[in-house]
Amino acid sequence: NKVMNFLRYGRRPFGTATKTYPKTFDKILIANRGEITRRVIKTCKKMNIKTVAVYSDADRHAMFVREADEAYRIGPAPTNQSYLLMDKIVEVVKKSGAQAVHPGYGFLSENRKFQKVLQDNNVQFIGPPGPAITAMGDKLESKMLAKKSNVNTVPGFLGEIKNDADVVKISNEIGYPVMIKASAGGGGKGMRIAYSDKEAVEGFKLSKDEALSSFGDDRILIEKYIEQPRHIEFQILGDQHGNYVYLPERECSVQRRNQKVIEEAPSVLLDPATRHKMGSQAVSLARSCGYYSTGTCEFLVDKNLGFYFLEMNTRLQVEHPITEEITGIDLVEEMIKIAAGHKLEFTQDDVKINGHAIEYRVYAEDPSRKFLPSIGFLRNYHEPSKHEHIRIDTGVEEGSEISIYYDPMISKTIAWAPKRDEAIKLLKKALQEYVIQGVTDNTGFGLSILNNEAFLAGKYDTSFIPKYYPTGYSGDKKSEAEKRTVAIVAARLKNIHEAESANVGLPHKSHKNVYVSLEGADYKVTLDDVNLKYTVQVVGEKAVHEYSMSDFEYKHNSLIKCNLKTESQEESHILQFYGTTNELDYNWLYNGTLLKTRVYDERQFSVKKFMAPPKVIDYGRYVMSPMPGAIVSVSVNPGDVVEDGQNLLVIEAMKMQNLIKSERAGKIKKVTVKPGDAVAVDAILIEYE
Q1: Predicted confidence (pLDDT) at residue 14 exceeds the cutoff of 50
Q2: Which positions are catalytic?
Q3: Among 534, 535, 539, which Cα is nearest to 521's?
Q4: Per-residue pLDDT tens over the stretch 182-202
Q5: Per-residue confidence at 579, pLDDT binned at 50, 70, 90?
Q6: 294-311: b or e for each residue (b if 16 or more CB lie within 10 Å)?
Q7: DSSP state of 79
Q8: Residue 443: which of 462, 458, 429 has the closest Cα?
Q9: Quick one: how many helices (H) and strands (E) in the chain?
Q10: Cβ distance 391 to 357 under 8 Å?
Q11: Rounded alpha-carbon distances, angstroms, from residue 467 to 390, 420, 452, 460
């Protein structure tokens, strides 16, 4: 019998305490950064393999640099001056004596030239062979090979697209909507959906620019965009002796900006027969090009369980942990053993589905600004409390910088449970417990998704975010019971702050009555902090609500946990206090929603009507930067008359190009930026007359 031990990354060791590993390599260099480098290091330590890290100036204090056995600087922060420089990495390989290189994902992980350079220097690339990278990593060639291998494919144009005229002609032949995407791309970069000739031409230019910037290859393909599909992928493993298995599928349909947000395994959509068909086609495709190592075949699946090959990623996927969680297979370990020439130790019959796993990618981004990235330092960062079925893969810690140069992912949070609903509940609790301050993050958005009825029912597709969050996410409407909860906790916290003032000798007073203004209403909270009894009443209304509190916990100067009990029920609550801008303003994150409250004692509330209202500034005359980034191009000049929807400029951030369009008709008075300028979020770019 094959022993398939359940993984609990960072909480239980991979494998068993008595497990021995076959001879592979003495030292491995990891040509990557952040959480994936830490992930590879942990498996290498388990296998008694020394590790070598490479780092840019921006990462010199990063966790992965400290955790590797050796670390070498390879250049400045920009990726084209550091992590994409093959010669620098090979130089470190020689200097360190590493016998093999693990590329992680992104950067050079799917670069045939990099694999060849290592091969020419007698260094093992921990990944597929060169010809397979060429065949599968190139979306054009992989689709042609898939057709030859009788793998279901999406209708599209597989030749070279030279200019705008080609784009319009081909798009009309296929029929709108079409997907315009980088041939050598991945991670949502170099990808646009077009519904018209105009959008196709715009998307072609932006995709080409992004593709060249991110991958050094600006070839573009166009294919039919299948509306409302499910995005389901299969992990395959193959060794150098012709043995293959496919692992249970991952559902990745919840995406924003063409990048995955939530992944789960297995999919609630597939039945065993469809799972077998799709997995078998994935293996057939891999076998046809002599593929070995890990690889991922991505499919689009329609509502009738028709499926179409999309692409194959010739690397480890970001979302690989959920596959590990439901199978017990350490994919990094398998990659290393396969690269060293060992056979797979298990067959298809040994692969079972055990429970359900779901992953949420915690990003430094602003869901209210259509998920644009946020940069800054993590001045207060604490991960959820440890739990045997919660796994957190991260490359950051308190004090780390989320920089403009790299992907803004903070962590991957993975929950496992025997059943899907239990895994969702566990993940919700974990997201509520995150403390992330210094940048804007998307944990609240994740909670909203996990509470969405369509998601809970498993009835969703790749249009999920555009359908339910068409303008991004700014919070969910709160019930009166939730507002009363916020009022009670805000009042309790005001008295805690008063007590803290007493500890440092400042004037203080414990208040019996506290007033909390929230969403246009004033809540009067009467406090008995000794016996933890509270009443809440909306000022001007007769109804009085009584509560008792227990298990109040306040830590990290932010995270508050408590139980509130009424006559009819008792509930646990988790809130985050986001700080104050003055004595009155208390900001909160509660069940995914940012809430602003003003908290008054009786004296302050008595003079509330005399207080000046917040100053409102009209920004309608300005175009402001929705994100930090660099100006790529500017299409207008002072004096130009523009129409609503006209292109103004392009900003690049986190390796993604963003087209800024005019939201009004008018005449340009001033352009404050030029190509190459770095801009902060909310910086004024253009002023109208």
Answers
A1: no
A2: 311
A3: 539
A4: 877 666 677 899 999 999 999
A5: confident
A6: bbbbbbbbeeeeebbbbb
A7: G
A8: 429
A9: 17, 40
A10: no
A11: 30, 23, 12, 10
Pairing of strands 259-265, 250-256: antiparallel
Identity of residue 400: S
| 3-state SS assignment for residue 311 | strand
Instruction: For tokens 């300005």, name the residue.
Output: 622
In this prediction, residue 503 carries a pLDDT of 62
> Over the stretch 317-371, which tens digit does the pLDDT of each residue have?
999 999 999 999 999 999 999 999 999 999 999 999 999 999 999 999 999 888 8
Rounded (to 5) percent helix, strand, coil in the chain: 30, 30, 40
Examine the pLDDT at 682 and tell me if it is beyond 80: yes
Q: Specify the amino acid at residue 566.
A: T
Nearest to 512 by CA among 522, 527, 490: 527
For the beta carbon of residue 553, count every other beta carbon within 10 angstroms: 9
- Among the listed residues 612, 614, 650, 648, the one whose alpha carbon sits nearest the alpha carbon of residue 631: 650
The structure tokens 């392009």 sit at 650
Note whether 221 and 288 are within 8 A (CB): no
CB of 128 within 8 A of CB of 111? no
Q: Are 224 and 154 in contact (CB under 8 A)?
A: yes
Distance CA 247, CA 295 (A): 11
Query: Cα dihedral sign for 151, 247, 102, 315?
Result: positive
Q: What are phi and psi of 506, to 5 degrees?
A: -90, 155
Supply 652's token pair: 């690049």
Instruction: Annotate 71-104 with b (16+ C-beta within 10 A) or e (fewer).
Output: bbebbebebeebbbbeebbbebbeebebbbbbbb
pTM to 2 decimal places:
0.83
Helix (H) or strand (E) holding 274: helix 272-288
